[in-house]
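Tutorial, part two.
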Amino acid sequence: MNIAIVGTGYVGLVSGTCFAEMGNTVTCVDVNEEKIQNLQEGIMPIYEPGLKEMVLQNQEDGRLKFSTSLASCIDAVDVVFSAVGTPPDEDGSADLRYVLEVAREFGRNIKKYTLLITKSTVPVGTWAKVKKAVQEELDKRGVSVPFGVASNPEFLKEGTAIEDFMRPDRVVVGVEDDKAAALMRQLYRPFSMISDRVQICDIPSAEMIKYASNSMLATRISFMNDIANLCELVGADVEAVRRGMGADDRIGSKFLYPGCGYGGSCFPKDVKALIRSGAELGYRMSILESVEEVNEKQKTIPFVKLQAAMPELEGKRIAVWGLAFKPGTDDMREAPSLVLIDSLLKHGCEVSAYDPVAIDEAKRRLGETSIAYCDEMYEACVDADALVIVTDWKQFRVPSWPVLRKTMKNRLIIDGRNLYDPAEAAREGFEYHRIG
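Running the prediction step on this input gives:
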């Protein structure tokens, strides 16, 4: 099948590359000329394990192309995916300007039946606005060209996005008619050879499934963080509580790990957007309002614990392990590390930080000189008065305690991801504080 994907961000680039890997001919379109030029030269705009190698191979094989013009390729394609950004407005609602511009561009250029598929995360009802925008452009042209619209929300996890796309647990597809449904089944058939993963439904339900799914996961995280904070007050072991809860088949163990809050491009934005959608209809999403409140407070916990253990922070050197919002990515959007570092700098601390892949992104966000960026995890700990762990990269899970004892000035660890056994840390001579 011939496919065009508009938007070469995280979703668009991963989706386009994986479709090409399955033998389709894919053109990824973006108005950012520099980004397209870089992609044509093999320079990736994002970090995702295995993505660069797959992009280069499919480019070499002629199945994956990059362009700045949808019009230049639309005559040859059967479907067009819209994978542009939907950043939150100031009121928390999703900004649909890019989604609607793709729809208008689509309407200005189609000459035969083509299916427009929204892959961006959009509020319920967006499909009607997209359809209207396409029809308005056709009316301006004075032509009657058949077209279809569909919703195909993505469920990619940063760090495992290729695996998620190639072996999906489900493919949600919202359509209006059988023709669009047949096209979508044909498109995803190579990904469902063992079992049919495609779930066909109406378009509003498909749009809601995405928001509801992310909001439920965010809810589990905030709930567990609330429980962890209460465990600390009553003297309960949150790890024992988590295991006891997770053993119940009705609950399960996933997303029950306490920590210093969620971040990234999806959970914060989608929770805000769903709250806003409810408000626009006169309905208050009380649980999600609390989820958001708990998460924002949770991001401050590592600093609060550090300040309690070391009241005089001015002039202290604090090591930070982890800058990305989660392991496997360089994404720092809404990252807890940003909240921590901001508080440290405001209290006169010197900060030395290490992250396996997010250093360049941190420099872009924090500046080249505001903190010390280190090339190795133990380098960040040299002469440190305390170590704060923010991201649970695997290489942090089994530290060399002798190296830490030798490099750190003061043996204080604030663990925002509960990586270590408190008894072991105590035996190694460290004052250790975790979440819960």
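The first helix runs from residue 10 to 21. In part three we will examine how such features are distributed along the chain.
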